[in-house]
Amino acid sequence: MSQNQxxxxxxxxxxxxxxxxxxxxxxxxxxxxxxxxxxxxEINHKNxxxxxxxxxxxxxxxxxxxxGQNHYxxxxxxxxxxxxxxxxxxxxxxxxxxxxxxxxxxxxxxFLWNTPLASTIKHYDFFDYAVHEALFLSEKEEAxxxxxxxxxxxxxxxxxxxxxxxxIISQIETLLNYSDRFYQRQFLTRKVSNHKILxxxxxxxxxxxxxxxxxxxxxxxxxxxxxxxxxMYLSSLLKSLTGQTTQQHIHEKLIEKxxxxxxxTALTVSExxxxxxxxxSQSFSKLFKTKTNLSPLEFRSxxx
Length: 304
Fold this sequence. Notes:
Blueprint: E1 6-9, H1 12-18, E2 29-33, E3 46-50, E4 53-59, E5 65-67, E6 70-72, E7 78-82, E8 87-90, H2 94-97, E9 101-107, H3 117-120, E10 135-136, H4 139-157, H5 164-189, H6 191-210, H7 220-226, H8 231-242, H9 246-264, H10 269-275, H11 281-292, H12 296-301
Parallel strand pairs: 1-3
Antiparallel strand pairs: 2-9, 3-8, 4-7, 4-9, 5-6, 7-10
Helix pairs in contact: 4-5, 6-9, 9-11, 10-11
C-alpha cells in the first residue's frame, strides 16, 4: 500500500480482525484494552478511514505530538476522538509502544439509530479536531472516564435486554459531556501557550490585510493552516479565550481596517471593499452595517 493510499475499515469486526483480536461480542459496539494488541510497523505512514466512531485513552504509545507551541509525550492519559469518514495517519515507535496501555471504544452509527444521540453526537466539536489536538487528562479525569467505559462494557457483554441500548447510550453521552468539560479545562489551564496562539492569530490576520499581493478575504482555513491547527479546534480555543470564533476575529479585524480606510482616505466604498477582498461592495456594506449599526457612508460622515 502506498503512503497516500487510504485504507477504509468498514466494520468493527474488520477492525478486530486487522488487529488480531477476538471477534467482537456485539457487531455495533466494542471496548477493548489497548495494551492487548501489537502496533505493527507495517501500518506506519499510512492513512485510514473508519466507518464508525473511535474513542480512546492511550498511554506510552511511542510518539510525541505538538500542542500549541509545546511538545507533549504520552506519560499521562491522552484521549482521541475519530468520527466516521475522517482520514488520519498512524505512526509508531515499536520499542516504546510495547509498553502502551489504555482502552479503545468503537461505536457504529447504526447503534445510535433512532436515539437523540444519533444527531447530537455531531455537535461535539472535538470529533473534528486533529490528532495533535488530543485531550490530555489528569488522573482524576481519567478515572471518571474509565468508570463510564467499564459500565458500558458490563452492559453490552452481559445479558442483553430492552434496557441495554438506552443505558449504554446514556453512558456514552455522559462520557462525551465529561470530555467536553475536560477540553474546556485544557483550554483554560494552558493559557500561556493559548494566549500566544491568540497573538499569532491577530498577527496573521493583520499581515494578510496589509499584504497588497493577497486576493479575496482571509478564511478560517487559511488562519488555521498558518498555525498548523484544525479550523474547529482553533475556533473552540479562541471561543474559550475571547468568546469569539475565528470567523468573528477575522470580521473584527476587517471592520477595524475598513474604519481606518473610511476615516483616513478618500477611497470610495467600492474601492475599500475591493481592497479588503470583497467581490461585491454590497456584501461589504451589509457586513459593516451588521457589525457597527452604521453604513460605511454614515460612518465616514461622522468624521466630517
